[in-house]
Amino acid sequence: MKQNLSKIYTIVVVLVLLILGGWSAWDIYRLRTSNSEAARVNVDQIKSNVESSYNAAKSFSDESFFRSIRQLFKDNPDLEILTVYSHDSDVGIEYHYNRGEDVELLNLDETTPLTMKDLPDYKYNQLMKSKLTSSLNTPGMSGMELDLIYKVVDGATIYNILIRLLIVVVVLFFTTLFMIFTVSRHNADEDIEDDDSDMSDHMDSSFDSEDSHDDLSLGWDENEDSSGGEFAMDDSEFDNLDLNSSGGDFDDLNLDDMNDDFDSASESSSDDFSFDESSDDFGNELNDELSLDEPFEDFNLEESSDDFESVSSGESELSEDTDDYSFDDVTDDFGDSEADELNLDEPVDDFNLEDASEDFNLDDNENEMSFDDLDDVNLDSDIPEEEDLMAMDHEISPSSDFDDDFDFDNIEDTFTDNVDSDSSENGPSLFSPKSGVGWEDFIEDRVNFELERAASEDQDLVLGLIQCDSLTEDNYKIFADQLKEDFNYPDLIFEYKDKGFALIVPNNDLDQSLKTLEAFTGREIEEYGEINVGISSRNGRLITGGRIFMEAENALHKAVDDPEKNIVGFRSDPDKFREFLSKK
């Protein structure tokens, strides 16, 4: 019954878990399907918005197009990525906007940053997101495609389903514990009842066995002779004797007759413990069975140890003196023979190996060494004297004979721990000791890194080159410190040539940077004289650091050549830039 209950409970638990898991999977599938259908309905609307925005702005890099895309993402909270690209030209991706970091754009060429090798490939969670593609109708540009990635399953929905599963599993867990505890306790109670019943059955069987042996009787034969009364048991009666019976089996035994027999046997001598040869029939039968006919007479250790021969038959007698139980004869024989060999009369302190070696001679075994062979060993001659030990291997010399190994010449210690960490011997650090800003060699690498980060986050970036010919070695670092105070990115300021600086301003467009640098040069021009600045920005383009650096240098050269303008900004045209790239 208990096994059947356990099997039924196990089957029920498995079925509950399977049904709950299937229900949860069906719920997720249904939700994903419905949200995917809703996203497909919105694709046409988003497509028309993108086409109208492009026709109004005439460029994918125009600010009005950016604003319309941002508004589109605000109206569609489930939209994660929007990518516009062309597979009929070498331009590649025209526009890419990513709301978060859950989706990653793959298969980009490392030599040309953010330029597509083939059709764009994305890395995203396909359970929670869905990709939709549609063609764009843009005048003057053929083969334009639109990729949209929608979030079709919310993380909160997955969380609620998992919580529901967890609650059911916890309930089943505690139910299983309760079942195990209940069954174990029930089994323990049944075991106790079984033990009690077994014990009662055993006691009943014991009482039945006692009753079966109540009629046991023993027959005794009495034979009288000169030595006194004796008792004997017939063979048939001995065979019927149950030695395993309890004490209650001997209730019918006539012990008074037995006591009379023992009393009559002991009347002949009060202190004599000897038995006659013809004492009783029972003794004779036992002697025949146990071969006790031959008694031990005058037992001698020497004779028994030599040949183990049996002694002649005779009568075994004990001493008639009941008050004296000493073994004088045995002690005398053993003591005389063995004491002579061990020489126990002498004290232990005077024990001599030379005397003992004569007694422990093992001449019978030629392969073993006797104590006589130790006479040839001269123990005194084999142990060296103390003087010989001192002269064997070494000679003790006074301490004055040793040289002082720790004597050094008196040399002046010129070592110092005050080492300049920015010295040229230790190699260049991240910042130049001349100005406290970055080295000029690191400009292009850092610009490349910041451009890639700005493109992935759809942000603008500005590179400014500042040149002041009136700077000297004394005020060069002061000018650099003033730059670090006015701009919040001290690690994005670098040396530029002998008397200039390069400045990277992330998340800032060309117009904002022009105003900021005009305010800075206006404050510092009174102290340092003429200050020229050249600026260039990313402006939605996918360009390299070398490209934007070349544009900023050209702007700086124009600022130096034009005395009326000390700040010149390079404003790029993304459409012309793409045409330039397509012709390469």
TrEMBL record:
Renumbered residue ranges of the record's region Disordered: 190-238, 252-288, 301-347
Composition skew (Acidic residues), residue ranges: 221-238, 317-347
Record's keyword annotation contains Transmembrane: yes
Transmembrane feature ranges: 6-26, 161-181
Keyword annotations from UniProtKB, A to Z: Membrane, Transmembrane, Transmembrane helix
Signal peptide: none
Protein name according to UniProt: Preprotein translocase subunit SecG
Organism: Spirochaeta isovalerica
